[in-house]
Amino acid sequence: MDTTAIIVTVVGLGLVAFVLWYFFFSARQTASAVSSTSGVQEVAITVKGGYSPDVIEVEKGKPVQLSFYRDEENSCSEELLMPDFSIRRDLPAFKTTLVELLPKEAGTFPFTCGMGMLRGSLVVK
Amino acid sequence: MEPATKTETLDIEGMTCASCAAFVEKSLSRTPGVQRAMVNYATEKATVDYLPTQASPATLKEAVINAGYGVTERAPDTSAAERGAEIDRQKALAYQKLKRRFGVAVGLAVIIMPLSMLMLWPAMMQRINMQWLNYALLLLTLPVLLYSGREFYVSAWNGFKHRAANMDTLIAVGTGAAFLYSLAATVVPGFFTSRGLVPEVYYDTTATIIALILLGKVLELRAKTQTSAAIKSLIGLQAKTARVARPDGAEVDVPIEQVQLGDIVVVRPGEKVATDGLITEGHSSLDEAMLTGESLPVEKNAGDPVFGATLNKTGSFRFRVTKVGADTMLSQIVKLVEDAQGSRAPIQRLADKVSAIFVPTVVVIAILTFVIWFDLAPLGTRLPLALVNFVAVLIIACPCALGLATPTAIMVSTGKGAEHGVLIRNAEALEKAYKVDTVLLDKTGTITKGEPAVTDFWTLPGPAGAAREAGQLLQMVAAVERQSEHPLAEAVVRHADAQGGPRLTATSFRAIEGKGAAASVDGQAVLIGNRRLLADENITLSPPLIAQAEQLLSRAKTVLYVAVAGQAVGLLGVADTVRDTSAAAIKKLQGLGIEVVMMTGDNPETAAQVAGQVGITRYFAEVLPQDKAGKVKALQAEGRIVAMVGDGINDAPALAQADIGLAIGSGTDVAMEAAGITLMRSDLNGVVTAIELSRQTIRTIKQNLFFAFIYNTLGIPIAAGLLYPFFGLLLSPMLAAGAMALSSVSVLTNSLRLRGFSVKS
Questions:
Q1: For chain A, how long is the longest CA-to-CA vector?
Q2: Closest Cα partner for A97 from A71, A125, A60?
Q3: Which of B734, B709, B736, B706 is nearest to B720 (CA)?
Q4: What predicted TM-score, i.e. pTM, was given to this entire model?
Q5: Chosen from A65, A71, A88, A100 to mutate, greatest number of chain B CBs within 10 A
Q6: Is A3 touching B (CB cutoff 8 A)?
Q7: Contact assessment for residue B491 and residue B448, using Cβ atoms and an 8 Å cutoff
């Protein structure tokens, strides 16, 4: 093994470590719901290659209104799925789509794009 | 009649204190036509009741503005129709754009490919400056990359910022790497030659991959629009206008949104019924196939319910509106199907887990592939080999097939179910129905019609009966029963009406509680009722009559005795009749390898009789309503997966206890709440459809998942060069792109096959 091969190996393994850390172990962006005066918990989410914030904390038993603003045309994010709440919505590009639901149980409920590539979760406390 | 008021909610802007609210309220209250205005400072909302004849949302808004405040247009609406239209428009645009991008990529790739192959002709190569050729290829590839493939890079970058990786990440990294390597070989070839490497370029690879992936996307988008075709056609069934009869007699066409509860709507032959209601006058036959899947038109008379979106065939009628908007049958079906399409099948769980880690894992495998090839391949070729295999791994991996496998099949099949009058609550219900090996039927209302009908009419031969014709006797009885409200009496009247004949009138009617009824017809005293009624009147039964009655009783029928002028002259046998379709449907279920079990509150004789009639061998008799769920449990304890079919309120616990509950359509809302599947048609064939559909759907999902898993688990190692040490085989990245484009399309096409679903007869 020559020097170049050693460099390639070290850099390659370094990249592997980075990819694993970056996608699986690094900290996520979390947002807690803001309760409006009418008692509805509101959260605004931007959809652009992912959901930001992608961890949303809400309280149990109070209605939740999520407003998804899809800031791209990429077809990956055009569908929104929240299987635990039987919600499947098409998100029009550059528009806000409201999704209303009532969390009855505590737990972590994922939401994803149509193919399950983009992910976020609704944490009910 | 008091004119109907409408209620409007306005979002008020600019209120800074509670007194502002009072001011807005006053201004609204003074507006002509406003009956009541309430402004809530905390929620910044005004609720206004007004007469639509004198005021409108616009005049209300004006009143608020006059008071010095503003009205916010309602927040982006989530109404399905509006969103649907916007999405359709955007999708059509996106499709056009995608086709253009694909066109450019293909156009340039067909030039780039032969140019890149010039090196295969050494004679030709001697005349061409390699350096210039590479620059020409670079110029041709740039538009493919920057125009056709732009979205891949943008999406990959957006995803990367969110620590998310998707299919575009793979394509962007793969083509990006091939392009950058080629760029370096073009611009600084000296760097390569000085290290003993040939400065090869991969512009053809880059361009072809992008063209092929775009081809896959074009095909995918086309197929995907078809998966939701069923729900779109359901929504499209909604009538746009209704012909409303005004109290002054005028008939006006009004937009469907303005139709209100209590309005009288006129429907002429060939027209669509606008919304749900009850017929007030006229009669007709209606085609309800779009809602119930029933192919035969249904006869409707005054008092019968009609449903929006159904088609009036022959007659004209008027109906009073009982439901509008989201409450109508059509809207509820649409809602149910939409909900089902958003649900997740448990079978999908593994695929979900894999999807979540798929792309980063593939990137890791690709990097390792690069490192291993670089370290192990011969010095002169290690860099190109490492690069080509790195790109091939990234490009062949297809998370799309995995992601599309289940949801597309669920979408097609729930839509298809709705077309057949089978409403599936969610994907889980579909999966449960697939596993069913035992169907438990509640006799009344499912196997049978659930209402008594006259099955036998027998008159005494000989002097007593000969005096009059049987038909006339039936009409005499019907004349009495027409005045009674007993369910058995209704059955007698229906039977007599069906037979035809002159109508007679009965006078001095009296109902005898728990026994029957008496009246005078044509001057003769007519009695109809049970045996005790005749006994109380001291009327004796002749032996043939008794024999006939016993025979009917042994066949589990209710016997009604008829006496005219103090003499017993005839008998009526009444029973809950079996639906015409029950026996055939049960046979089909048995043909599917399912054991059909019946349960009923009737005595064992009746139960045996009905069971024999429809070909059921196992049944539970004398089951009390509260014990129905227990019977489901008993079957489950035998290790069976039980589907319960029922209609009544008292079936709800049993429907919920069963592995899958099927509520039969004419049933109650309560039963439908507890059921996983609702059959719109009162017909056991729906059970067959539901089970067949679930079987075909789950089979399709399994094929899809199998294909997606096998494709990726075989494709990735082959692309990484695993076969090279044994067979000297390497996968070209261009072939990998072709395979990837085809894989997701194959899964979609397989799901779309469900559109051809029909029940095997």
A1: 69
A2: A71
A3: B736
A4: 0.76
A5: A88
A6: no
A7: no
CA A89, CA A97: separation in Å to the nearest integer? 9
DSSP state at residue B147: I
Which of these, B606, B602, B516, lies nearest to B557 by C-alpha position? B606
Q: What is the pLDDT, as a whole number, of residue B462?
A: 57
Across B596-626, b (16+ Cβ under 10 Å) vs e yields bbbbbbbeeebbbbbbeebebeebbbebeee
Minimal Cβ distance to B164: which of A38, A50, A93: A50
Q: According to the model, what pLDDT value does residue B80 have?
A: 55
Helix axes of B399-419 and B329-342: crossing angle, nearest 10 degrees? 160
Tally of CB atoms within 10 A around B262: 11
Please give the C-alpha separations between residue B308 and each of B137, B235, B319, in angstroms, as whole numbers.
62, 11, 11
> Scanning every residue of chain B, which has its alpha carbon at the shortest distance from the alpha carbon of A69?
B76
Complex-level ipTM beyond the 0.85 threshold: no
pLDDT (0 to 100) of residue B144: 94
Judged by a CB distance cut-off of 8 A, whether residue A107 touches chain B is no
Query: Which chain A residue has the Cα nearest residue B84?
Result: A90
Three-state DSSP class for B680?
coil
CA within 13 Å, CB half, B650: 13
Compute and round to an integer the Cα radius of gyration of chain A. 19
Tell me the C-alpha to C-alpha distance, in Å, between residue B148 and each of B99, B101, B170, B224: 10, 4, 16, 21
Check residue B77 and give its pLDDT.
Answer: 40
**Residue B139: its pLDDT value, please?**
94
Minimal C-alpha gap between A125 and chain B (Å): 23
Sign of the dihedral defined by the CA atoms of residues B423, A119, A20, B359, in that order:
positive
CA–CA gap between residue B282 and residue B297 (Å, rounded):
16
**The residue type at B451:** E
Tokens, residue B489: 């009496």
> Residue B1: its pLDDT value, please?
42
Which residues in chain B come in under a pLDDT of 70? Answer: 1-4, 14, 16-19, 40-43, 72-83, 462-468, 648-649, 666-674, 760-761
Contacts of A74 in chain B (CB under 8 A): 151, 154-155, 158, 168
**pLDDT at residue B42 in the model:** 59
Cα A49 from Cα A35, distance rounded (Å): 27
The predicted structure's pLDDT at residue B688: 94
pLDDT in tens, A43-82: 888 888 888 888 888 888 888 888 899 888 877 788 888 8
Residue B669: the pLDDT is 58
> Do residue B221 and residue A75 have CB atoms under 8 angstroms apart?
yes
pLDDT value for B761: 54
- Tell me the residues of chain A between 7 and 26 that have a Cβ less than 8 Å away from chain B: 8-9, 12-13, 15-16, 19-20, 22-24, 26
Of B155, B343, B404, the CB nearest to A76: B155
Which residues make Cβ contacts (< 8 Å) with residue B211, sequence separation at least 6?
B102, B105, B106, B109, B144, B148
Residues 6+ away with beta carbon under 8 Å from B247: B1
Instruction: Summarize pLDDT for A91-117 with one digit per residue, the tens.
Output: 888 888 888 888 888 999 989 888 777
Residue recorded with tokens 């589990």: B556
Rounded Cα–Cα distance for residues B573 and B239 (Å): 46
Dihedral sign, Cα of residue B536, residue B542, residue B545, residue B547 = positive
Angstrom distances, CA of residue B571 to CA of B8, B205, B261, B492, B575: 63, 90, 47, 11, 13
User: Which runs of E-coded beta strand occur in B405-557?
Assistant: 422-424, 438-442, 448-459, 506-512, 516-521, 524-529
Q: How big is the CA angle at B688 (ends B685 and B689), to the nearest 5 degrees?
A: 90
Q: What is the C-alpha separation between B284 and B312, in angstroms, rounded? A: 7
Distance (Å, whole) CA B89 – CA A90:
12
As annotated, the active-site residues of B are 442
